[in-house]
Amino acid sequence: MNNSLVFELVTSNLTHQQLWDAVKAHKLSNSVNSDIWVVNGCPPHKLSNDDVELTNEWILPVELQQYDRGSLTLELADQIFAELRCRRIILGIVNDDGTVVYYFMYKGLHKPKKN
Amino acid sequence: MNEHTKIAISLVKGNSNSGTPLVFDIDDIKKLRNWGTAGILTGTLPSAAQQNGFLSVPLRLMVEEALWLVDSGMAFFFTGPETVTAAAETLTAREMEHALERQEKSFAEQRLFKKQQHAEKMASLGIPFDEEKASFTLLESSLFVETPSVSELVSATIDQNSARQEELWIKLYNGLRNTGDYFVYKALKQNHYFLSPGARFGGRFIAYPGDPLRYHSHMTVQPALDYNRDPLDLLQVVSGGRLGTGVKKLWVVAGVKMDDEKEAKEDVSFFSIEWAGFG
């Protein structure tokens, strides 16, 4: 997987559109023959009612292409979780028009969030 | 409750060559429910089709469900007319007599009950009731003969642990569109989820934390992915995630190590996805 072309877009989207603090991109170390970047930052408010407090979140930028299914396998997702050691990551899905949508991805089976 | 403890799953041949798993015994259906398998009731009459809520036996199981029940020793398969013929051939004259005796006993009980009811009715109307004058033919023609929906004989005579069972299991398993789904089912079952078919919410299974009559479902589980090879389809993540958020369910993907031995396949990785609420 290679997301080196989209992580800067996600970084600026989080900083300037979603108004996150301390947004910074990091390159993952244990990724063999791949170029994976993750973004760390702090949201302006709690993202889910189930969260106890405001915490730093990890965002994995990924590119959505209509005729290419990409290369984020579940094995790779497990490796990313193993390196970041977090409960959830947020997929930052970049569309070809420059918009970004965000999805929680929890490891394992999880309950739906309370409203 | 019946003498046999294992549940009989009939494999009825339909369009697919491996068969549709059905359960006909109402006691077995009760047991299944207690074990966390709800299934879907499908029985109705062509001339008086019913709404889903009023359907009756047989109970239709998912193929994964039937495989799991047999694999964990709670059920056995039976199939084909040859099983019935073979069972019928073991029938002895003594057993036939015994069946007739039981029938006669049931008639006797019914006669007694009907006479009693008739006497009570006459008494309440103040009409004197003479048992001698009561119509014998009317009474006889109102007796019921019960036709059971399951055969005790077949369950008793079938070889529940034979190579034939194994053969049926493998045939049914190979008939699955995605054999990984069986391991996903198994893993969810080990986490004590109730599962039902997932097409209503765009998945392979819907997972309930308990009996579907008591709980809302928590997750729509997608068809199994190859853990090492299948990429996560992001367009699916977006559409599934939006739908899931709308119906308050997590959209769950499961990875099965397809190339490995059976033991490794049972180690299924799950990821739960939902919309983050912004963007």
What does this structure look like?
The complex is a heterodimer of chains A (about 120) and B (about 280). Chain A has helices spanning about 5-15, 75-85; strands at about 20-25, 35-40, 55-65, 90-95, 100-105. With about 120 residues, chain A is an alpha+beta fold. Chain A has a single domain, classed as Trna Endonuclease, Chain: A, domain 1 (3-Layer(aba) Sandwich). In chain A, strands 1-2-3-4-5 form a 5-stranded mixed sheet, with helices on both faces. The termini of chain A are far apart. Chain B has about 280 residues and is of the alpha/beta class. Chain B has 3 domains: about 1-80 and about 150-175, MutS, DNA mismatch repair protein, domain I; about 90-140; about 180-279, Trna Endonuclease, Chain: A, domain 1, CATH 3.40.1350.10. In chain B, helix 2 (about 65-70) crosses helix 8 (about 180-190). Chain B is elongated, with a radius of gyration of 25 Å. At the A-B interface, helix 2, strand 4 and strand 5 of A face strand 9, helix 9, strand 10 and strand 11 of B. Strand 5 of chain A pairs antiparallel with strand 11 (about 270-275) of chain B. Chain B: This is tRNA-splicing endonuclease subunit Sen34. Chain B: Keywords: Lyase, tRNA processing. Chain B: Heterotetramer composed of SEN2, SEN15, SEN34 and SEN54. Interacts directly with SEN15. Chain B: Its EC number is 4.6.1.16. Chain B: GO terms for molecular function: nucleic acid binding; tRNA-intron lyase activity.
CATH class of the largest domain in chain B: Alpha Beta
Distance between the termini of chain A: 35 Å
Number of domains of chain A: 1
Strand content of chain A: 25-35%
Subunit structure (chain B): Heterotetramer composed of SEN2, SEN15, SEN34 and SEN54. Interacts directly with SEN15.
GO molecular function, one term (chain B): nucleic acid binding
Active site (chain B): 208, 216, 249
Keywords (chain B): Lyase, tRNA processing
